[in-house]
Amino acid sequence: MIRAVSDPPPRALVTGASSGIGAALARELATRGHPLVLVARRGDALERLAAELPTPTDVVVADLATEEGLRTVEDLITDTADPVRLLVNNAATGAFARLTEQDAATLDATVHVNVLAPLRLSRAALRRMDGRGGIMMISSPVAVGTVGLTAYAASKAFLDALGRGLVAEAPAGVRITTVAPGYTRTEFHDRLGEDVSGIPDRWWLTPEDVARTALDAHARGEQRVEPGRPSTAQRAVQKARRLTRPVTARLRRRGTSGSA
């Protein structure tokens, strides 16, 4: 009797892998046997993470807010002899402040990291995916629009649209999954400068929760997953918090920006 031999887990590239959800995804992917490419600005954090992972891991220090950094990762995906067959567009940046209070550099970085990088990296990866592979977009429930996060929310709405479009365009056998996790305990809220002290403990997810749920959904071929999807009551509270609470009362540091 001849037994079928399954393909080994494909090489995966995770952007924004130095902390939070990105680092949790890297750990979970490694546990599942995927060789990895980890991308972020903080090389020291990437090296520490790579040292603890049980699978072959390459570290790429790149700032996706710059053309040089984006081109570095784009070229790696395009030129490597060992194709990236799972791309995780996780890196994100932004600021918690009214649009008129954000400087041009912050807005440019938000567009470069959250919009342009996923667009170009997805294009590069899809060109190497001949009937197998996948792309994951890490979006957010705030994509519906949130006072104080207008630019960030708009960039996440772009990711939602990109994911839907690629579902229709991707070759057969290539899976596209958009992940919109609820409140997740990472340092990202602090980097944004957003006060989340009023969010009940029971609403929070861990990065590990998000990583497992996202990768399980992707393995099943689901096109969208919302870890920690809020109940009707939670959505009502969140909407009121977004639209009625003064932005200035939720700011810890005016003009602060965050990146993952």
UniProtKB/TrEMBL annotation:
Basic residues: bias regions: 238-260
A Pfam family of this chain: adh_short
Sequence segments annotated as region (Disordered): 219-260
Signal peptide: none
InterPro entries per UniProt: KR_dom (IPR057326), NAD(P)-bd_dom_sf (IPR036291), SDR_fam (IPR002347)
Gene3D superfamilies linked: NAD(P)-binding Rossmann-like Domain (3.40.50.720)
Keywords on record: Oxidoreductase
PANTHER family linked: DEHYDROGENASE/REDUCTASE SDR FAMILY MEMBER 7B, SHORT-CHAIN DEHYDROGENASE-RELATED
Family membership noted in the UniProt record: Belongs to the short-chain dehydrogenases/reductases (SDR) family.
Protein name, UniProt field: SDR family oxidoreductase
Lineage of producing organism: Bacteria, Bacillati, Actinomycetota, Actinomycetes, Pseudonocardiales
